[in-house]
Design brief:
CATH superfamily of the largest domain: P-loop containing nucleotide triphosphate hydrolases
Number of helices: 17
CATH class of the largest domain: Alpha Beta
Number of strands: 28
Strand content: 25-35%
Oligomer: single chain
CATH topology of the largest domain: Rossmann fold
Distance between the termini: 93 Å
Radius of gyration: 28 Å
Largest sheet: 8 strands, antiparallel
Number of domains: 4
Length: 652
């Protein structure tokens, strides 16, 4: 055997894996495909693998043989992912098929999910870790309920990038009219969802049009190809690198002198020497070291699998969580969540399910079902149970606390699964909205039922001049426009431009701004969660008074909590409250920083700044989304004016 001393001069041994792995330092994109039955998901993935030369020769030979046995000509690309025998016999996808490939620009992991309604639960599984979702629509069939369901689930799962691939364009003669009609219908549906990045691509997976190369059959389409979009879409921007969360998975104790805690960093970053808390006990310590398979680390970031050692001996076990001292998650035994039911047997409130949250396992009851969502209309429906593929908002009561963050800011600590205690079958997957509040807590924060939350010894008096009479005289309907978004997103600027346009049209308006009311009516309130709720409660009551006076009321408030905004909505008649999400990235808001709040937060002089050290719950189904980092305030004001005209608000 050759030894190092026998090597020729100037020649040294090199670690093979590191020397010959050209993909080691590449970005990784996880994406999923979904759609209705026979929309061509497996064929599309097969086309990507085939055209990027990511198929081994023996695989190609096996698929060619299977194609011939089926009596088909050429290569059936769908068979590359339909790995189960039952799938190939029925020509459908049943299980989630994962495939891996790479181009010179990026690595990819694909989750090919089933299209049948009864396998929607598999779509939830496949998309749960995805950063991009491809929703396929058959150009011949148009937008189906299943296409909408997958878009809705993708928005619930907070997948930041969604591609609607209008497939089988070759079967509609590559018609631009067909594509435009599908695009318009799906866009109208998606406007009701919380989708940050939505693009449309017309293609033919079978023929390869617009998959890897631009199609000569659709010269009218000037957008990107699918592969180019996959290679260039921005990934990693939505990772939470602020809130350090380390769920303990395993305690390593090889001898008496070493005690380490193994797991994966769920979010945030950490370095040796930082002060930390260990939940649930709340014991304080410091990070002594961070160990990995490659040796000691100077920093651990989200996604790293590490062993953490602490300077103090603290009783810690699987299911506990290590967090930064000044940034702790919510510790709760009552949880408000959106739940996707994934079992043939309906949800049974009397059953104590097993809730798996990070590495923690607790008993849980579904103590309340608030509503079920109609996927076609996105309307809320009253129900006392959830069936297979139903999605609803529920409240869970837990036997032990979990350590949670809202799903919108942390996909790991904001998600969970429910397991049946007798069959060990996964029956549901949930996205946490926050800690559920008791009725007493809601009243303490200014919430609760309007009919009972009143001062004693008072009698309600009706309006002297009814709103309807005021609307007739004004020539337009009264409404409340509620602008919500991060500080610096442009809420006040947009509202001011819109109010000026409406005023010049002769409309009766009132603009209520957050800073304006905190100089007077709400000057006694701070920025704690309780004070923020009371702030919005008072604003809601004031906006209702101006509404009853026949005004178009424009309210510009960060209003970080969904429940607070929903309570204001409940004060007004149906169709007279428009929630406007002024959507702008945190990075852009920090760059603008018109009031210097982000700079002061970075210096430590502001502790509770929404989006940085305090949570912001983005609207789930706002009536209007204003992308203020793309469009100008004037353009958005014009769009809103057009929307008010279309909704019939600007005429009595």
């Amino acid at each position: 055997m050759t030894t190092a001393t026998q090597l020729p001069p100037g020649v040294r041994l090199v670690e093979p894996a590191r020397a010959h792995d050209p993909y080691r330092d590449m970005d990784l994109l996880r994406f999923s495909t979904a759609g209705s039955v026979d929309d061509g998901k497996s064929t599309l993935i097969g086309r990507l693998l085939y055209d990027t030369k990511s198929i081994f020769e023996d695989q190609l030979e096996a698929i060619e043989g299977a194609t011939k046995r089926r009596g088909e000509t050429g290569v059936n690309l769908a068979l590359l992912t339909d790995g189960l025998r039952a799938e190939r016999e029925q020509n459908i996808t049943i299980d989630v098929a994962y495939r891996y490939f790479a181009t010179p620009k990026r690595k990819f992991i694909i989750a090919d999910t089933p299209g049948h309604v009864q396998y929607t639960r598999n779509m939830v599984t496949g998309a749960s870790t995805a950063e991009l979702a491809i929703v396929l629509v058959d150009a011949r069939k148009g937008v189906l309920t299943q296409s909408k369901r997958h878009g809705f689930i993708a928005s619930l799962l907070r997948i930041p990038h969604i591609v609607v691939a209008v497939n089988k364009m070759d079967l509609v003669d590559y018609s631009q009219d067909v594509y435009d009609a599908i695009r318009q219908e799906y866009t109208e549906f998606a406007e009701k969802l919380d989708i940050k990045d939505l693009i449309f691509i017309p293609l033919s997976a079978l023929e390869g049009d617009n998959v890897v190369s631009h199609s000569a059959n659709m010269t009218w389409y000037e957008g990107t190809t699918l592969l180019h979009h996959l290679e260039t879409v921005n990934v990693g921007a939505d990772r939470n690198l602020v809130d350090f969360r380390f769920p303990v998975q395993y305690v390593i104790r090889p001898h008496q002198d070493f005690r380490g805690f193994a797991g994966r960093v769920a979010s945030g970053t950490i370095t040796p020497g930082e002060e930390v808390f260990v939940l649930p006990g709340g014991r304080q310590s410091r990070i002594r070291s961070l160990e990995s398979a490659d040796g000691e680390l100077h920093e651990a970031v989200a996604g790293d699998s590490v062993v953490v050692t602490l300077e103090d001996e603290i009783d810690t076990s699987r299911g506990d969580m290590i967090v930064r001292k000044m940034n702790v998650p919510t510790v709760a035994t009552r949880v408000d969540a959106m739940l996707c039911w994934m079992n043939d047997e309906p949800l049974d409130p009397s059953v104590s399910y097993i809730l798996m949250h990070t590495t923690r396992q607790v008993k849980a009851y579904v103590s309340q079902i608030h509503y079920r969502v109609d996927v076609d209309t996105l309307h809320r429906q009253e129900t006392d149970s959830l069936g297979l593929n139903d999605i609803g908002r529920v409240e869970l009561t837990l036997a032990q606390p979990i350590f949670l963050d809202p799903y919108q800011i942390n996909r790991v600590t904001g998600s969970f699964i429910l397991i049946h205690p007798h069959t060990n079958v996964t029956v549901g997957a949930g996205m946490i909205r926050g800690e559920a509040k008791t009725t007493a807590e809601l009243f303490a924060h200014g919430g609760g039922d309007q009919a009972t939350a009143i001062s004693p010894n008072v009698v309600w008096e009706g309006w002297n001049v009814p709103r309807e009479e005021r609307e007739t005289r004004n020539g337009h309907k009264a409404t409340v426009l509620w602008f919500t978004g991060l500080s610096g997103s442009g809420k006040s600027t947009i509202a001011a431009r819109l109010e000026r346009r409406l005023f010049e049209r002769g409309c009766q308006t009132m603009l209520l701004d957050g800073d304006m009311l905190r100089h007077g009516l709400n000057g006694d309130l701070g920025f704690s969660p309780a004070d923020r709720r009371e702030n919005i409660r008072r604003v809601g009551e004031v906006s209702r008074l101006f509404f009853e006076a026949g005004n178009i009321v424009l309210c510009t408030f960060v209003s970080p909590y969904r429940d607070d905004r929903d309570r204001v909505r409940a004060l007004l008649p149906e169709g007279r409250f428009m929630e406007i999400h002024v959507d702008c990235s945190l990075e852009e808001c920090q760059r603008r920083d018109p009031k210097g709040l982000y700079a002061r937060a970075a210096e430590g002089s502001i502790r509770d700044l929404t989006g940085v050290t305090s949570p912001y719950e983005e609207p789930v189904n706002p009536e209007f989304v204003a992308r203020s980092d793309i469009h100008s305030a004037d353009d958005i004001a014009v769009q809103l004016e057009v929307r008010l005209d279309a909704d019939g608000i600007l005429k009595a």
